[in-house]
């Protein structure tokens, strides 16, 4: 009887296991059939029948795009407002409200020819006066308001803007300025809504959101939502998506919660490991190179760090590819200089300082440093990813024969120690401007400001000044080539990598949306939302 009981139990367990396997296989088959059905529906879906796009923005402080420092609102405003020009993914300038332009011989002014037949969302014609008004407003020539313009550092380079004809406007700079086009990507505002007494609206909660973009705002409550619809008189290509609903949320975390619950279609990931979301069938990630550049700053007041042979040895000793793979999920691009890797200004994709432990070890030995020499690698303790990176770097440098100890500090203490020159190496990062100008970091006149490493080199000063004042694109690229060659030789920073960023979207969003660091909605005219049929 006992054996029969055991056999019965085993039989029951086997049957149960078999039934679970059948159910499991059934679930997998059902999931596969559902996915195949969804893909078939998407393949046969007519983009002209696109559904509405659901997105979210963090609660804005100001609705004026020239005041706004809220990144999510800035991205939404790319749908509503336009500048004279814009950036593509390679940081090249492309036409927007200006269809063409011409520099003067000195590189000190640009004459723009504006697109014809462009209208504001209220039906008024776009005119040169709108460009002049926007620039004058940013230069505080419109009223006595103290505007917190997010483009203030750039606008200071503009001396004057004037109407040349009904379709032309000229922008002049205080001196030859090769970054003039890059400086003019800011949104243009409609003069007719703000001139005279209306200028007070610039800083008002009742700011009228009227642009020239592909979408117009038809409803908005800054505490709850915006509703955008396709502007039918838009000068460019019509989008498939005719309506965009924008939820206003407290922060990025709230936006992610809405994305995970299926309430919105697009979201910015909260961390570098966004692939944990894209592992799900219903989510896709589109990555792009960000403006976030990681580097090791050296203290040039330190006798040893002032030796470029040591800086070069450090560069050889660090396996940057390994760091990217192990800590950053390979979301980045290793670079020897701070010049944006995909930029038309970047002269080479080849790395000079590829990982070479033997070369690094030999260079360090040749320096004949005292055996007791110990260096500190400082970083901010609130950035756990950077702290982990610092420990890997220290380990790699130790293997090359350089004794390095990691020290963590609060952001305030780190800044104090940098100011006091109380460090040897510092692992840090810059969120760089789209207008690439490294005078703030490497020009000798900036040693009490952005040039915190105390780097001084007459050739570097000359090159940076030549870049700023280059009279044409060829001269500009030539000087940027000189900058990169000198940087690689001198190593004022130990360059690590640029980090990638990404936008996550639901699989129901199809088409050629091509986000980049400047505009997450680049290519929105080619995207469409597949309507999902639900059963009652």
UniProtKB/TrEMBL annotation:
A Gene Ontology cellular-component term: periplasmic space
Keywords, alphabetical: Signal, Transport
Keyword Signal: yes
A Pfam family that the UniProt record links to this protein: SBP_bac_5
Any single GO BP term: peptide transport
Ranges for domain Solute-binding protein family: 92-442
Matching InterPro entries: Peptide/Ni-bd (IPR030678), SBP_5 (IPR039424), SBP_5_dom (IPR000914)
UniProt entry tagged with the keyword Transport: yes
Single GO molecular function: peptide transmembrane transporter activity
Family named by the database record: Belongs to the bacterial solute-binding protein 5 family.
This protein's name: Peptide/nickel transport system substrate-binding protein
Organism: Tindallia californiensis
């Amino acid at each position: 009887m006992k054996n029969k009981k055991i056999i019965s139990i085993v039989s029951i367990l086997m049957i149960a296991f078999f039934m679970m396997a059948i159910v499991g296989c059934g679930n997998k088959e059902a999931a596969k059939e559902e996915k195949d059905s969804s893909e078939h529906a998407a393949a046969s879906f007519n983009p002209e029948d696109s559904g509405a796009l659901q997105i979210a923005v963090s609660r804005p402080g100001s609705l004026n795009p020239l005041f706004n420092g809220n990144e999510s609102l800035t991205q939404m405003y790319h749908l509503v407002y336009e500048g004279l020009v814009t950036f593509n993914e390679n940081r090249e300038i492309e036409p927007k409200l200006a269809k063409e332009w011409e520099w003067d011989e000195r590189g000190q002014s640009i004459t723009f020819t504006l697109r014809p037949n462009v209208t504001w969302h209220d039906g008024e014609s776009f005119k040169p006066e709108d460009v002049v008004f926007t620039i004058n407003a940013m230069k505080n020539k419109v009223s006595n308001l103290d505007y917190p313009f997010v483009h203030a550092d750039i606008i200071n380079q503009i001396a004057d803007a004037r109407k040349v004809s009904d379709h032309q406007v000229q922008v002049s700079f205080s001196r030859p300025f090769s970054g003039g086009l890059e400086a003019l990507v800011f949104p243009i505002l409609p003069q007719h809504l703000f001139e005279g007494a209306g200028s007070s609206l610039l800083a008002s909660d009742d700011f009228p959101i009227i642009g020239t973009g592909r979408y117009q705002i038809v409803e908005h409550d800054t505490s709850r939502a915006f509703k955008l619809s396709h502007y039918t008189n838009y000068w460019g290509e019509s989008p498939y998506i005719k309506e965009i609903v924008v939820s206003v949320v407290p922060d990025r975390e709230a936006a992610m919660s809405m994305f995970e619950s299926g309430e919105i279609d697009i979201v910015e990931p909260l961390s570098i490991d966004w692939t944990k979301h894209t592992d799900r069938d219903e989510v896709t990630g589109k990555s792009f190179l960000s403006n976030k550049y990681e580097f090791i700053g050296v203290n040039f007041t330190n006798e040893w760090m002032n030796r470029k042979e040591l800086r070069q040895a450090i560069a050889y000793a660090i396996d940057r590819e390994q760091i990217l793979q192990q800590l950053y999920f390979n979301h980045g691009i290793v670079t020897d200089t701070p010049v944006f890797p995909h930029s038309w200004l970047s002269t080479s994709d080849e790395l000079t300082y590829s990982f070479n432990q033997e070369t690094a070890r030999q260079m360090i030995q040749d320096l004949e440093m005292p055996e007791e020499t110990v260096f500190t690698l400082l970083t901010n303790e609130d950035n756990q990813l950077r702290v982990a990176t610092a420990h890997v770097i220290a380990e790699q440098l130790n293997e090359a024969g350089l004794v390095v100890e990691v020290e963590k500090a609060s952001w305030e203490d780190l800044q104090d120690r940098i100011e006091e020159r109380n460090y040897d190496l510092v692992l840090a990062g810059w969120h760089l401007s789209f207008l690439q100008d490294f005078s703030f970091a490497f020009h000798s006149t900036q040693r009490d400001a952005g040039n915190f490493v105390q780097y001084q080199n007459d050739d570097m000063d000359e090159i940076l000044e030549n870049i700023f004042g280059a009279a044409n694109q060829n001269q500009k690229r030539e000087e940027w080539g000189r900058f990169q060659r000198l940087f690689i030789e001198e190593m004022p920073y130990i360059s690590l990598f640029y980090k990638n960023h990404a936008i996550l979207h639901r699989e129901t969003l199809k088409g050629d949306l091509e986000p980049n660091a400047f505009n997450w909605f680049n290519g929105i005219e080619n995207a469409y939302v597949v309507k999902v049929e639900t059963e009652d």
